[in-house]
Amino acid sequence: MSEPIKVLFLCVHNSARSIMAEAILNHLGGHRFRAFSAGTQARADHQPHPLALAALQSAGIDTQGLRSKNWAEFSQPDSPHLDLIITVCDVAAGEPCPVWPGHPATAHWGYPDPALVTGTEAERLHAFKQTMHALHQRIELLVNLPLSRVDRLILETEARRLAAQAEGGSHA
Known about the structure:
5 helices
């Protein structure tokens, strides 16, 4: 059996969008994918946003072990060799990235931050669920790509194509 494709999802605080993407890809990816997430400025308490966890749990996606991590964890020589790095927020996409071991493929899938939504608890949870569903749709497409032999160029091209494909649709 070949190694799984290792994907790192990046956001600023690694508390909502990137955490949800990590959990969804690990849920859908089977043995083909292994997902991680990190933030450029991870939360000091290392706790994911409670509504991100609630949205995932409502969809039957395991949240055990999820924690907010700084992206420096993945730029160390002993870090997992990453195949693909996907930014899921515009702020993280614009920041200078560390030099990643192995020079993985990159793509940007921008989503509005559900943590910025105000209103009742139900309205805020709805925003997190909308973001989770948008992530789920794109990740499902990634998982179902017929990639029997993945190389960096194919992975990057397909991940960017999925981003462009969704540009015409709703992100939230």
